[in-house]
Amino acid sequence: ASNWMSAASLMGLAGIIYLQGYQALAYVIGWTGGYVLLLVLLASQIRRFGKFTAPEFVGERYGSQGARVIAAVISIAISIIYCVA
């Protein structure tokens, strides 16, 4: 979730509400619900493992350096797409 939470995301939500009005409420509720779902399902596990990034958690959880590298590559690819968009 920490990768998704940024000023650009929050400003984007405000922009969607401004442009679409009340109809954008469903998007905002879904976005907020997703954060809460991640918090409930993943926060305790990540805290238990003592990891701070998704690739660290995946590598530790599955006991594989390969899984850690794959998670890191996916995170970088998503970040690049996010920055370009």
Walk me through the structure.
This protein has helices at 7-20, 25-49, 54-62, 65-84. The chain is an all-alpha fold. It starts with 6 loop residues before the first helix and ends with a helix. The chain is elongated. The chain has four helices and no strands. 80% of the residues lie in helices and 0% in strands. The chain folds into two domains: 1-50; 52-85.
Keywords:
0% strand; mainly alpha; single chain; 85 residues; 2 domains
- State the secondary-structure class: mainly alpha
Tell me the overall shape.
elongated
Number of strand elements: 0
Distance between the ends: 19 Å
Rounded radius of gyration (Å): 16 Å
- Helix/strand order, N-terminal first: HHHH
Spans with pLDDT under 50 lasting ≥5 residues? none
Give the fraction of residues assigned to helices.
over 70%
Mean model confidence by pLDDT:
83
For the largest beta-sheet, the strand count, sense and barrel status come to: none
Query: What's the number of domains?
Result: 2
Strand content: under 5%
Number of helices: 4
Brief description of this entry?
By secondary structure, the protein is an all-alpha fold. It has four helices and no strands.
What's the structural blueprint in terms of helices and strands?
Layout: H1 7-20, H2 25-49, H3 54-62, H4 65-84
Pfam families: SSF
Family: Belongs to the sodium:solute symporter (SSF) (TC 2.A.21) family.
GO molecular function: transmembrane transporter activity
